[in-house]
Amino acid sequence: MLTISNYVKAKTPEEAYELNQARSSRVMGGMMWMRLGNARVKTVIDLSELGLDQIEESDNVIKIGAMCTLRQLEECEALKEMYGDGIAESVRHIVGVQFRNQATVGGSIYGRFGFSDVLTAFLALDTFVELYDGGTIRLSEFVNRKPDKDILLSLIVRKSKRKFRYESIRQTKTDFPVIACSVVTGMVHGKETWYFCVGARPMKAALLEKQWEIPKDVSEEMLAEYARQAASEFTYGTNMRGSAEYRRHLAEVLIRREMSSILAEGR
Amino acid sequence: MEIQFILNQKQVTAEIGADAVLLNVLRDLGCKSVKCGCETTNCGLCTVWIDGKSRLSCSVLAASIAGHEVTTLEGVAEEAEEFGSFLAGEGAEQCGFCSPGFIMNVLAMFRELDSPGIDEIKEYLAGNLCRCTGYMGQLRAIQKYMQAKKTQKMAQRRGEATA
Question: Considering the entire predicted model, what is its pTM?
Fold first, then answer.
């Protein structure tokens, strides 16, 4: 059970940070996951008045405030224009509209949950996190850090011409994914680069980068070989939703489909 | 702590604990349509609107809604009754326990989407679970309700044109 002694709506990021330095303080996002756990929280810190609920697009980046909801991601035109339907695809299977109207991007990313679709999607893109104290660092670095007492302010996606695909497998609609895969490709420093991100393995999402030049008319066999190679470089685990071997197989299939879809569209 | 918010268009005050969830506060204020069905934040029974958006009141900290506007089934009783008659007409309900949350999300859907197709409807309502039925009656009820509304609107327009 979760018990809370004090509730504070922070007026400034500084206030939120200061309050959060106490061991018994917790920052609340959408409270979707937090309320299911056991904790005695002295002060819960609400960031909802810090203006972190906007998605701002500039020439070079798309900046997503930590308090944006998953529904905002799903309906964001700027993300759709850059990366197609992939971002919406990554969140639309998460429980229901009511849930996505409440679950926050900051909560999903900060939690570094194994089941996180949001993490799996953004880790494959050129993404940074903006922290109050820790500055702006790569999401790929943040994901492997231990949770600390910093405040996550926003997620920053650097715009670049990249193709993005997202797919997940669920045993029933609205459940956690058994496996989630995103594939991104684009030119990086003049080289064709592929990024593969696999989440819900069931461990949290991990990223793989490959400088593969794949011709548009690559044979089915060759493509399957690339997918096998990519999928084999992740580790998988067994839990109630599936075995490690099953997950590796699913990852391989999804990666192949996503690569195939990107190649068919053209880069 | 004391919070003030708007509940079904009326200003209300509630004395709450810092960890009180909205679901319980609403029930204490007499809105018994709001129920907890799953304890795991995914059944949709506790759906209410906060500032016009469907939300799961079981995981909203009541303290955070001070100054906001909450609507429960009691606040849209007339519309809910009208749609409810379509649900009953299709034999969609068995125990009826999930209906209030379901109806709130259906009405939210009608406000957000313009004549949604069957796939859009299914996607929008995926977070509302019913353990008695297979959802077919509910889908028929939604489609018939939308059709009836459309006919109503057209008749209204025709009436205005001839007036």
Answer: 0.96
* Nearest-Cα residue of chain A relative to residue B105: A98
Give the Cα-Cα-Cα angle B141, B143, B149 (nearest 5 degrees): 100
Residue range(s) defining the domain that contains residue A236: 161-267
Within-domain flag for A100: no
Please state the domain extents for chain B. 2-74, 76-162
Q: Mean pLDDT over residues A126-150, rounded?
A: 97
State residue B115 phi and psi, 5-degree precision. 30, 70
Compute CA A19 distance to the chain's CA centroid, rounded to the nearest angstrom.
27
User: What is the value of ipTM here, to two decimals?
Assistant: 0.95
Going B130 to B71 to A37 to A48, the CA torsion angle's sign is positive
Asked, for residue A81, whether it belongs to a domain, the answer is no
pLDDT value at position A84?
A: 96
Mean pLDDT of all residues belonging to chain A? 97
Question: Do A174 and B64 lie within an 8 Å CB cutoff?
Answer: no
Tens digit of each residue's pLDDT (9 = 90 or more) over B59-70: 999 999 999 999
* pLDDT computed for residue B161 by the predictor: 81
Q: Establish if A136 belongs to a structural domain.
A: no
Give pLDDT tens digits for A235-247: 999 999 999 999 9
Asked if omega into A177 is within 30° of 0 (cis), the reply is no
- What is the spatial order of strands in the sheet that A55-57 belongs to? A55-57, A61-65, A152-158, A127-131, A135-138
Q: Which CATH number fits domain B2-74: 3.30.2350.10, 3.10.20.30, 3.40.50.300, 3.30.1490.100?
A: 3.10.20.30
According to the model, what pLDDT value does residue A74 have? 97
Domain B76-162 has CATH 1.20.200.10: no
Determine the distance in angstroms separating the CA of B48 from the nearest CA of chain A, rounded to an integer. 9
Q: Number of CB pairs < 8 Å for A and B?
A: 78
Query: In the 3-class helix/strand/coil scheme, how is A72-96 assigned residue by residue?
Result: HHHHCHHHHHHHCCHHHHHHCCCCC
Reported as a single tens digit per residue, the pLDDT across B7-52 is: 999 999 999 999 999 999 999 999 999 999 998 999 999 999 999 9
